[in-house]
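Table 4 source record.
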Amino acid sequence: MTNHIFPCLWFNEDGKAAADFYCETFGGKITVDSQMVLNIELFGQKLMLLDAGPQFEKNASISFTVLCETADELQGYWKKLSADGSVLMDLGEYAWSKLYGWVRDQFGVTWQLYLSENIGEQRLIPTLMFIHQNNGKALEAMNLYTGIFPNSKIGGVLKYGDNVGTETHEIPENVQHADFEIDGYTMYCMDNSHDHDFDFSEGISIVVMTDNQQETDHYWNSLTADGGRESMCGWLKDKFGVSWQIVPKKLLELMNGDDQMRGVNVMKTMMTMQKIIIADLEKAYDS
């Protein structure tokens, strides 16, 4: 299972409390604990928690589906996540699962808990919801992402019209649920016609760690094409508004070297960039 693609969640001075809570809830561990960045491992998967201030808020446009093996396991997660949180879909039996619920926890992160008979290696799955101007574009997005990343594929696609006998106000050709992989990393997506008061934002982004400048350029240029937008420090938004961080592994290597002052120089240089240029970081390190 890949760990060079993983989610990043934005927090406002409560990242450490959230990290402790998620590790206690799901049985994970904190692997990095710095002033601003915390990395945690849940089900063997990496998540980054960025404690960076009030600028962005997390919302249900990107939620996290947790595949559960038993009802007891699922109910244990539900009890902890719903405490001081809010229920988005009641815990119960649905057409797609004998036990399912959607909940927002006390930190603003939303979780879809799913009793599944088919659990693979990846049990925690980011789930994209395409709403407003993006409603109906889930399949287009999957085609874009799987065309950009190697070792990628679209899996099962269930459209609203495929549910014979099920009443729905959704467009029949829209995606009710689909799974896809980008470089071996599984994600889910769906279309939704409801008028939600949120959309994709930097509150939850997808980090891609790259091996070299060629990879960095490829992902950056491909994801910003056709209406995407460049931001600062390796951040960008694609044409649908999904936020990505394209981060060369060399950046972390230079920042975390033995010479602290050189690491500071690298950080200062990175802060002036949009797309990360490895050669310029190396110059800053050597200066």
